[in-house]
Structure formats: structure tokens, C-alpha cells
Amino acid sequence: MSLFQHAAFDARRMEGMSVLDLGCGRNKLPGSIGVDFLDLPGVDCVADLNDRLPFQDTSFDVVYSNQVFEHVTNFLGLMTECHRLLRQGGLLVAHVPYFRSSWSAVDPTHVRQFSISSMNYFVCGKYENSNFRFFEQSFTSLECYLDGNYPKGPLRWTFTKMALCWPYRFENSALSFLYPFQTLTFVLQK
Q: What does the pLDDT read at residue 149?
């Protein structure tokens, strides 16, 4: 990693794994099983992400979604399904718009927004999970990446480090307005 390069999720981590691509639309990940509520080219399974998905427990190494979670009305149900479908040690990889981004607000089909700490409720050992969790299953670890597709630079590196080290302070200050991020990538491990 070069100077001032902030971390980004490395999609090569999913190579050779069984992947379920939630809400794949027309852009299904190569080699994955694609699920969408529309019967589009490349979709392998038509299903509503607000309901139980038609797969056996522990069927996948990775559950992947790209710009999907913000559209789902039964988010807690979907998180339960993701946990159910993953094998032990499996990864949930979710790309979502950051709540300060205009992309978070511009789409009229978005029903929720995500901040850096939004997934803490689902991860064992996090304050939110210990005190306010919504279901008994928990993921074991969490990684969070900001704007993984942007070029390096000292300003981006500085604000990324600040936001990830002190998310509540950063997001509740003027800094998050002055330097809003566009996307978040969450990686939760079962």
C-alpha cells in the first residue's frame, strides 16, 4: 500500500467461494448465484428480499450485495437470512451509500441510510450489539471501508482515518458535511 492509500475491500477475497449475489439485477457477479425480485437476464432466482430466501441453511461462503440494503423494508429479516445462509466463517459483503452522500437521498426507493456504525448492532462485542441487538445470532467481526473506488490523497486518507477511528464524533460534527463520503462497504464475518 502506497503512502496515503486508504484501505478498500479486496474482491479477490471472494475468489473460489460460493457466492450469493443479493439484488444482482443485470450485473451479477461472475460465478455467483444471482437473486433479484425481477426476472432479468442473469438472475438465477427470483425472490423478495423481504421474505425468507429459498436456500438451505449454511449454503454459501459469501453473501454479497451492491447498493441493495438501502432498498429493503424488512432489513432485520434480511440480516437474519444472511446469517442463516452463511457457513461458519463466511462473509457478508454489503456496499451501501453513505448517509451524507447525495446518492443516499436522491433515489426515491431508498428506505434507510447507513453510517459507519450501522452494522455494529449485528456484531458480537460491539456496544450496540451488547446493549441493543435485534436478534440472538451475531456476526463475529466487522470491517468497514469508505469510498473504496476513489484515488489516494492526503486529504482523503486523513478524513478516512478520522471517520473510522471516531465515527460518532466525525459524523456528528461539521467535518462530515465538509468532507462527505459516497459509499460504505461492510464486511461481516459469521
A: 66
The dihedral through the CA atoms of 33, 39, 45, 50 has a sign that is: positive
Q: Which three cell numbers stand for residue 142?
A: 466487522
The pLDDT of residue 179 is 84
Containing 127, the helix (H) or strand (E) segment is: helix 127-132
Cβ 148 vs Cβ 185: under 8 Å: yes
* Rg value, the chain, Cα: 17
Spatial CA neighbour of 181 closest among 116, 106, 110, 107: 116
Angle at alpha carbon of residue 159, lines to 158 and 160, rounded to 5°: 95
Write down the pLDDT at residue 73.
96
State the Cα–Cα distance between residues 130 and 123, nearest whole angstrom.
Answer: 9
Three-state DSSP class for residue 115: coil
Q: Which residues pair with 144 in a beta bridge?
A: 186
Quote the distance between the C-alpha of residue 39 and its chain's center.
24
The CA-based angle 105-111-112, given to 5 degrees, is 75
pLDDT of res. 1: 42
Domains, the chain: 11-151+182-189 (3.40.50.150)
**Positions in the chain whose pLDDT score sits under 50:** 1-3
In which order are the strands placed within the sheet that holds 60-66?
Answer: 45-46, 33-36, 19-22, 60-66, 86-97, 183-189, 141-146
